[in-house]
Each structure stands twice: as C-alpha cells, then as structure tokens.
Amino acid sequence: MEHMAKIAFGLYTLIILGGSILAVGSASLVRAMVGLIATLLGVAGMYMLLNAQFMALMQILIYVGAVCVLIFFAIMLTRADGKGEEAESAPVRKNVLALLAVLVPGSILAWLVMTKPQPTTGIPVEVAIEKLGLGLLGPYALAFELISVVLLISMAGAVLLAWERRGGK
Amino acid sequence: MSNLVLYQLVALILLMAGLFGITQRKTLVGMLISVELMLNGAGLSIVAASQLTPANAMLGQLGTLFVMGLAAAEATLVLAIIVVVARRFGSTKTSDVSTLKG
Q: Per the domain annotation, does A154 fall within a domain?
C-alpha cells in the first residue's frame, strides 16, 4: 500500500508539473487553460492522497466545473485569435527578470521548508463530512455567511460592470 | 524528507509557476490563469499542513473551502473587468491598457 501511495504521489506530481508548465508557457490561451485543468485535477488527486475526499470533490466541482468555464468565457468574449495571443516571444530581459522574481522567493521558501521540519503525524487524519458541515453551521457560521455575501456581491458587480448600456453614452 | 515536506514542495512548485506566469504573461487572461495556479498551491499547502500535523484538520479543510470560494468570486470579477477592458481598448494585452481617464 505504501508503494502504491508513493507511485500515485509521483504521478500526480508529474501531472501538476506538466500542467503548470503548459499553463504558464503555452502560446495559445486555450492550451494554457487545458494545462490549468490538468493541474487542478492533479491537485484533486493530492487531496485524495491526503485523505480529504470532500476537498477533492469540491476542487473538481468548483475549479474545474466553474472557474475554468469562467476563464473559457473570458477567452471567448475577448475575441481571441487562433494563432495565439502570446505568440510573439517576450524579450530576453523580461524572461530573465521573471525567472529571478520566481527563483528568489522560491528558493527562500524551499530552504525554509526543508531546514525547519515541523512535527508530523505521518498518516493523514480523517475528518467526517458531518463534522465539516457542523463546523460550517456552528463555530464558523459567520465566515460561511460572509463568503456567500462576497460571492453575491461579486456576481452583482460583474453583471453591473459588463452591462451593455443601450441608448446611453 | 517527511510527507509534509513533499506536499509543501509541490505547493511551492505551483506558487513558482504562478509567479512566473503573472510576471511574464502579456494578456489579462493569462495572468488570471496564473493567479488560479497560485491559489491552488495555497489550498494544497493548507490542507497538507492540517492533515499531516496535530493541528485542527477540520479548520484546515474549511479554510481551503473558503479559499476556493474567494477564488471563484475573484474569477467572476476579473472576467467582468476583462470584458470591459476588451470592449474599451479592443484587446486585453497589458501593454495596450495604458491610458487613464480622470
């Protein structure tokens, strides 16, 4: 069983790595979105390995189901042309600066993570879905209600922003 | 290396990919994709840290749920902003969106 978990971890890591490289480096935005979907599915697999099945389901439902459809609408509504929006290559200086902006915080964080190990239990604990629901309705009810208000306001704001005025200016 | 460190390194890969994308992409949609990558890394890190340590596991999962909700709200608003920008400037390249109007 231990070996199966390690193989699955390596597979999901490969999916995440390849997907994120495709999402960041692809010249066509639609291909970048396919890479993003692969990455999200890999992260859902990681949640499964972490014994958080509900989170894996929510990851697929919310991210793959909703956010990716939103991004696809964004690509469609901006009349993306077929040959790729990011086709012309960036100047070398910009690429080098971007790489620097990644490597400095990345290496600092990796150094911190590797040299300051936290005490772990080794085996992921299991949280029953009932406990999650009771938590949302009990001690964290305020945060739950606030996030629904945030979602409502953001939806109303999106409709207001994108509203096409007829006969106006 | 413990399992927790491995999961944190995977989350770090996601963060680095997102950071690279957001500094290097030339369109707003590409930057939105990069932000989603970074938020996923944050969620994975939170869940790994709460599931593999003696911390409160329920709190970690609920926190990641809230991160997902915020990501959905943010994607909605960015979609609206992209539509407005595309209508006004004719493209969503960040180099074209350069005029301010008081």
A: yes
* Domain boundary residue, one of A82, A115, A142: A82
Q: Tens digit of pLDDT per residue, chain B (102 long)?
A: 788 899 999 999 999 999 999 998 888 889 999 999 999 999 999 999 999 888 888 899 999 999 999 999 999 999 998 888 888 888 778 888 887 776
Rounded to whole angstroms, the Cα distance separating A77 from A79 reads: 5
Residue A65 sits at the chain B interface (C-beta within 8 Å): no
User: At which residue do the structure tokens 């911190």 appear?
Assistant: A112
B3-89 has which fold?
Helix Hairpins (1.10.287)
| Cβ neighbours of A102 in B, within 8 Å | 16, 19-20, 23
**How long is chain B?**
102
ipTM of the shown complex:
0.91
Instruction: Report yes or no: A110 and B1 within 8 Å, Cβ to Cβ.
Output: no
If one counts every other C-beta atom within 10 angstroms of the C-beta of residue A28, the result is 17
Total number of domains in chain A: 2
pLDDT digits (tens, 9 = 90+) for A49-64: 999 999 999 999 999 9
CA distance A81 to chain B (A): 11
- CA–CA min distance A117, chain B (Å): 7
Cβ pair A154:B76 closer than 8 A? yes
Average model confidence (pLDDT) across chain A? 87
- Probe site for chain B from A7, A46, A148 (most B CB atoms < 10 A): A46
